[in-house]
Design goal:
The chain is mainly β and 880 residues long. The protein is 14% helix and 35% strand. The chain is built from ten helices and 58 strands. The strands form 14 sheets. An eight-stranded parallel β-barrel has the order 25-26-27-28-29-30-31-33, surrounded by four helices. It has a seven-stranded mixed sheet with strand order 32-44-45-43-58-50-55. Strand 26, helix 2 and strand 27 form a beta-alpha-beta unit. Helix 3 runs parallel beside helix 4. The longest helix has 25 residues. The chain is globular, with a radius of gyration of 31 Å.
């Protein structure tokens, strides 16, 4: 078991020196994010005989922000071409020039003035291209950079498959950097830059070490002096060290320094994220001229994991709690400006989190800087997801990615874990050939061992981790639970399979069978479509109510087990997954927030569980409708009791259980004023619009919108609230005959389909249906009405099921003939109606009828010709 108390660290993006009059000091870093020309084209536009118009874009940029949301089941994965004229006027006295790409997905080639400057494989780490010998420095000379980026599938580059979208483009910033011939190297695959470590950290003392890697690009040896300063948060100098060395021509030089021990240091923690600063200057030993200067933040702390007792920071036990994050955003794809990316970390901190996972790849340095500054502990990783390729090229790229990850992010004090695999046995290859599969599993284990060894060699101070899905036996038998220092488990009992009660049993099994292995719950969650509500929540209904129930149970089990070092909710915000269908096509909506970061009730629930200060928030969600004016008011709080007042009525006291105080009370039609107050004087208020649906369809009722074959309610894109169906009752309304549609052989959901429905934004209206329906009745008074019938053929054809759905695999549904008549009050309105034959399968069909009703009420009757009649949804409203 890994027992050592580990170090702190640092942050560090290279900073540029201030510009002065005349010669500048150190390096200059210039943003080159504006006014790039761009073409989405497979062939090289430079080889075309005719001129091509290049539209202008600014970075960050992706070409997939829109096509990942359209109705097609794919998105552009190919070449994108960028070009720009470089302005070198501010760098004329710099001997060395570089282009620094923070990330581009996923293969990138760079040319300068027509000559190849560099290539990079991998979509999530930075890379630097030296262009010194390719530019023309004459006054007025043109220097053109051309970049080809491709996000095509490449079996040699992870990720190969995943439940997220592989956006293409230069989606982070690009910088033009000028340095002296002698300079600090750029952290990456081959170079380390400046690495700062803290081998000793206690409340009494701390040691801070600097290892600087320099390169001399000139043909002459240089004597240099390396000067490092350590400053506290107020800028006071608390340590200084100097070293002299000889930098050989065209060679690299590594210099190690150590400051005098700090006495009574300020320690870094989530409650007090105190940062020191290390400034490292490279000077000419003869003239004293500053050749280069870089600056990094440093946080002093110690930490360790225990298989029995969890996680300890600075000697104190800490339960790690937080969420993971994907980097895309509504309307932007993954081309997210830094300030918006940093806002996600602020939202995590406001949620009360102390832990964060950069799933499933390295993220913007600004995100990690924010974690350092705000106090969030971090697990980060490379994107070896779901499966591997058994080739030397794939292994080499994985090792290069891990080396880039560690070297580029080494100095962030927030990072405590380096990960390198996620659910790599989720959908294993060669299921029909056990011998070949055993060989494949050994290849996976060999890659894991190589990555783990590399990581420990690059950084002995942090922990390594493999993240597994819930197949305990398979991961243990293949040896993947023995290789890393920590095992992470992505667990979805009660969602993709199993029961909610299985979750706690799984945690106990790990502790019993792997008693010396620290563990984290690295993912858990349930889809929470904010448009879906349920009074009878159940697995896979996508309702907010079930997701709340799921998270309450999971958090309770996690908190009561000290050996669970921590847990990460999946996920902070909804994100794009182009291959998904279900109620919100192309989206994974397990987020605590929506894609645009609008909080769901789940986010408020986590605040009630995690924040240390008094907390109170009334749910803004509309909840479910009923016919009796009774509505559930939900309040999130970390207090014991809430005083609730509705529409100036007498306040009532409501006890809070597990962070939620709720009461079912009468609301009036229209707007209602709700206010809540805690014993500590904390207050919140909300206006809730409520319109109960009619039970008796007396004269003057407004409208009904009803989902058939459903136990859930739905709020559509026009904010209309659809309610669940019920059997017909005399004097009222409802369906006659039939049963809810279910996916044949599904192990997940008890009603409805998981297919996306074409020709609609409101998929849940069409994803459930009553099969074998005989009639639908409305006992309405005489008058004029608009009746709308909604249909979709839900069954038939090949259905591809993504790997994350675990037990359900791809299926071929039987194609059945379905022909029926529809009559309204005895008049046939649809004759020989064949949904699939006339419109196709999984396509929304809407039929609108204007009619007059006398004293007979309204009866819609369905008569089978071939197969069973169906109805997916129905609307009725009076016409004045």
């Amino acid at each position: 078991m890994y027992k050592a108390i580990l170090s702190l660290l640092l942050t560090g993006i290279i900073s540029c020196a201030a510009l002065g009059q005349g010669r500048s000091v150190g390096r200059i870093q210039l943003s080159v994010t504006e006014q790039w020309s761009f073409l989405k084209m497979e062939s090289d536009p430079r080889t075309l005989e005719h001129n091509v118009h290049w539209p202008v874009v600014n970075l960050p940029h992706t070409w997939n922000s829109e096509d990942v949301l359209d109705a097609r089941k794919d998105y552009y994965r190919g070449n994108g071409w960028y070009k720009k004229q470089l302005d070198l006027s501010r760098l004329k006295d710099k001997k060395e020039l570089f282009l620094q790409f923070e990330a581009a997905d996923q293969e990138t080639e760079v040319w300068v003035n027509g000559k190849k400057a560099g290539f990079h494989a991998g979509g999530y780490t930075a890379f630097t291209v030296r262009i010194t010998d390719l530019v023309n420095r004459n006054a007025g000379a043109r220097n053109e950079v051309v970049v080809r980026v491709t996000n095509r599938f490449n079996e040699s580059i992870p990720p190969l498959t995943a439940d997220f979208t592989f956006y293409g483009g230069i989606y982070r910033e690009v910088h033009l950097v000028g340095t002296d011939a002698v300079h600090v190297t750029f952290p990456g695959n081959m170079e380390k830059g400046v690495q700062i470590s803290t081998p000793v950290v206690t409340h009494e003392k701390a040691q801070v070490q600097v290892q600087a890697e320099l390169r001399n690009e000139s043909n002459t040896a240089r004597q240099i002096r390396l000067v490092s300063q350590l400053k506290d948060r107020e800028g006071k100098l608390v340590g200084s060290v100097e070293s002299e060395a000889s930098a050989d021509a065209q060679a690299m030089l590594s210099v190690r320094q150590q400051f005098n021990e700090l006495q009574k240091p300020h320690l870094w923690s989530p409650e007090s994220p105190y940062l020191y600063t290390v400034i490292t200057q490279v000077k000419d030993a003869v003239t004293g001229e500053v050749l280069d200067r870089v600056q990094h933040s440093v946080g002093l702390r110690s930490f360790r994991f225990s298989a029995d007792s969890g996680f300890f920071l600075n000697g104190q036990p800490v339960k790690l709690m937080g969420a993971s994050r994907h980097q895309d955003y509504k309307g932007l794809g993954n081309a997210v400006p830094k300030q918006r990316a940093v806002k996600d970390i602020q939202l995590l901190k406001q949620m009360g989190a102390n832990f964060f996972r950069t799933a499933h790849y390295p993220q913007d340095q600004a995100v990690l800087d924010a974690c350092d500054r705000l106090g969030l502990l971090v697990a980060t990783e490379i994107p070896v997801v779901n499966t591997i390729t058994e080739t030397d090229f794939f292994f080499t790229n994985c090792l290069a990615m891990q080396k880039e990850l560690v070297r580029q992010y080494f100095n962030h004090p927030s990072i405590i874990i380096w990960g390198y695999m996620n659910e790599v046995l989720l959908r294993p290859k060669y299921n029909g050939d056990k011998a070949r599969q055993a060989s494949y599993f050994e290849s996976v284990a060999a890659l894991a061992r190589a990555l783990d060894s590399l990581t420990r060699s690059e950084d002995p101070s942090r922990y390594t981790m493999i993240v597994n899905h819930g197949d305990f036996k398979r991961y243990k038998e293949t040896g993947l639970t023995a290789i890393p220092m920590i095992v992470g488990w992505n667990l979805y009992s009660g969602w993709y399979g199993g029961q909610l009660s299985d979750f706690g049993k799984f945690l106990d099994r790990h502790h019993q069978e792997l008693p010396d292995k620290p563990m984290l719950v690295t993912e858990f969650g349930a889809d929470a479509d904010p448009r879906i509500r349920s009074r009878q929540p159940e697995r896979f209904d996508k309702s907010i109510e079930y997701a709340l129930q799921f998270n309450q149970i999971y958090l309770k089990e996690i908190k009561q087990r000290p050996f669970v070092a921590g847990a990460l909710s999946w996920i902070l915000a909804d994100f794009n997954s182009e291959t998904r269908e279900e109620t919100m096509p192309h989206m994974n909506n397990k987020g605590l927030m929506e894609w645009d970061r609008k909080p769901k009730d789940l986010y408020f629930y986590y605040q009630s569980q995690l924040v240390k200060h008094p907390f109170l928030k009334i749910s803004r969600d509309p909840g479910t409708l009923s016919s009796d004016s009774l509505h559930t008011i939900r309040v999130f709080t970390n207090g014991d009791e809430v005083q609730l007042m509705v529409n100036d009525r007498t306040p009532i006291r409501v006890s809070a259980t597990n962070g939620i105080a709720q009461v079912r009370t009468v609301l009036r039609s229209g707007w209602n004023q709700i206010s809540a107050r805690t014993e500590q004087g904390l207050q919140d208020s909300a206006r809730i619009y409520y319109q109960p649906y009619p039970d008796q369809l007396e004269k003057g009722f407004k409208s009904l919108a009803i989902l058939l074959g459903a136990k859930r309610q739905f709020i559509d894109s026009s904010k209309r609230h659809w309610i669940e169906d019920r059997p017909y009752r005399e004097g009222s309304w409802g369906s006659v005959g039939g049963q809810p549609f279910t996916i044949p052989g599904s192990s997940r959901q008890s009603y409805g389909t998981d297919k996306a429905i074409a020709q609609t934004e409101n998929d849940p209206v069409y994803q459930t249906q009553q099969t074998g329906i005989e009639a639908y009745r409305f006992d309405v008074p005489p008058g004029n009405y608009e009746l709308i019938l909604h249909f979709a053929e839900l069954e038939g054809g090949e259905v591809m099921v993504p790997a994350y759905n675990l037990r359900d695999t791809s299926r071929t549904e039987v194609i059945r003939d379905r022909i029926f008549d529809v009559a309204i009050n005895g008049k046939t309105v649809l004759k020989d109606f064949n949904i699939a034959g006339q419109y196709g399968r999984a396509v929304a069909v809407k039929k609108v009828f204007k009619l007059s009703v006398n004293n007979t009420g309204l009866v819609v009757r369905f008569t089978a010709k071939t197969g069973a009649p169906v109805l997916n949804a129905i609307e009725l409203k009076p016409i004045k």
